[in-house]
Amino acid sequence: MMETKDYIYFDNSATTSLCPEARAAMARAMEDYGNPSSLHGAGMKAHETLEGARASVFASLGIRNPRSGGSLLFTSCGTEASNTALIGCAFAKERRESDLIITTDSEHPSVANTVKYLESHGFRAVRISTRGGRLDFDMLEKALREKPFMISMMMVNNETGAVYDVKRAFAMAKAANENVVTHCDAVQGYLKVRFTPQAIGADLMTVSAHKIHGPKGVGALYISPAVTTARKLTGFIHGGGQEGGMRPGTENMIGIAGFGAAAEAGMKNFAANVERMTAIRDYAEQKLSELELTMNIPAGDRAPHILNITLPSIKSETMLHYLSQNGICVSSGSACSSRAAHPSESLIAFGLTPAEADHSLRISFCEYNTEAEVDKLYECLKQGIATLVRTGK
Ligand code: PLP
Prior knowledge:
Strand order of the largest sheet: 2-8-7-6-5-3-4
Structural class: alpha/beta
Bound molecules: pyridoxal-5'-phosphate
């Protein structure tokens, strides 16, 4: 059971509540405060917690045998994991065959802005269109002729919930050049969509704890054995030998313990959670379709937890505040950019005009949401549309 709260929370793509398993594991890690690098008993206990959490996150990625399955770096968040993947690959020891990176036009800023950073250091980028929620494979085929050293594509778009066919994209990239490194930002697909890094052909994969009912401030980067053997990735934090020297710094043990527990609980309840999220999203979709608004539904596969809508004549920020005053939390774009003045690049890439993007809201669910909460959202949106349109806001 989750504790009662005085608001209705439909912003689970921004972050989620802590699950009881994560809370308990974090409380234990607060008591067992040893440094996992220390050689005494307290250190060994912390080391066991660290490796236990790593095994749980590995297992949640479908990897049962961490020894042969690759490595997993704990990082400070998903953003750091993706920075490590892109910058670490761009500046790796292995000589790159080109200076080209292929990505999409609707990545989360953690990838989009890292690509821009690399461009400012002389790299080139091609951004594949994701109009309507689908990758443009003709555009990809042409771009692959230029032999990129890396391809980085998200699994699930954080604003529309579109599931991109990264498996097909990565297979095409490897067929064009087996040396290309494939990276997938799986933060929004993690424990929402069934996948393993091997099944989709990802050499590198980013996940984050706080989107799966774990704590904020901890993420992980999966690294395939092939990338490590070929020395195609280098760390950019310098210090001691933690995380195999790739990501030094004393580990965030409380966060990592919570991540491991959330990953384990999420794995155990995967099917039931997805079924629950899908049901609640479908209920919301059916209910809200009675209102004067447009739904931005991806043309292909969709994740179970995201519904994006466009209001005809009310700015998203105005409606967001109206809902918030009535105790309902939704979002007007990705949490990191929702305070930014410019319209969402993801929604523009999806095919919305800047004005439409400026009138859009993201409603995102988790398995704890209820139909009664959706009914309240419906009533509130209905009143909001009538009131805010009437007052000309
Ligand atoms: N990638 C996607 C698709 C996201 O939605 C987010 C967070 O919103 C991130 C990366 C960043 O994860 P973190 O908040 O752990 O840095």
